[in-house]
Amino acid sequence: MASPRKVMITCAITGAVHTPSMSPHLPVTAEQISDAALGAAAAGAAIVHLHARDPVDGRPVQTPDAYEPFLRKINEASGVVLNLTTGGAPTMPLTERVRPAAHFKPEIASLNMGSMNFGLFPMLERFTNFTHDWERKYLQASEDLIFRNTYRDIEYVLRECGESGTRFEFECYDTSHLYNLAHFADRRAIKPPFFVQTVFGILGGIGQHPDDVMHMKRTADRLFGNNMIWSVLGAGRGQMPIASLAIAMGGHVRVGLEDSLWIAPGKLASSNAEQVMKVRRIIEELGMDVATPDDARELLQLKGNLKLHNQQAA
Ligand code: KMH
Ligand code: ZN
């Protein structure tokens, strides 16, 4: 009998989409981020996708100093694969966004595959009370902001992070981003297998209809065939329905409070681990297994769980 397919769960712990007043469960301090990442790993996440925040007001920050304490704790306690963002926040310049991944040289870094609108302002309809001054302004600013990822920017990330053997979570928010990825593959600037994270439901990218998922998958299959490891991320309420669809279609999944604050309609998730446990139940009920971090290393051909570069010794 064939062994069950192994499905990788990535958990994106805190991100830069939501602001602290939206949920008391959104990790903000280094301790909250490491606890949440370790909880997600214990629940079955093979990969944790990480951003840092200012511990006082929860604003996204991209200094290696902000990352070091939680990276050290996660690395000491778990073999989970570390994935550091190079997206940072759409408000930040690229040189700032890339600093943590260039400094720590993790197994994976994210790489956003095109410039786009990144509309966070619709959340102002749902959330009206904010503790910190920056939160409302940050959401409002997204009405007139481009999340910049030009060809030169992409080359810069590939150069700054790729030379150390860091591989990439290629974040593709629309079909054009798949074609951009194919362009870099044609130039031999990137090596397969390509970890393609298709993103559904960011205003400025493709939507969340099942046809959208089919279209991205069909296009990615045509462009990359067996050179692709396909994963999905549904923003907000589409998180679990899109994950379920992709699991049934042979894909991998990303969950976590970066992408959705919810565990059920109108009900905030109490932790990242709660979302991991939910998607894990779906995977197992469909007769598949959850991939371990070492399964993910093999599937994605990662460099291995070396001590993070530049991390202080424990
Ligand atoms: N929050 C996701 C939709 C990144 O970190 O590079 C996008 C993201 C970007 O994960
Ligand atoms: Zn992210």
From TrEMBL:
InterPro entries, alphabetized: Aldolase_TIM, BKACE
Domain of life: Bacteria
Protein name per UniProt: 3-keto-5-aminohexanoate cleavage protein
Keyword Transferase in annotation: yes
Cofactor(s), names only, from the UniProt record: Zn(2+)
Keywords: Metal-binding, Transferase, Zinc
Keyword Zinc among UniProt keywords: yes
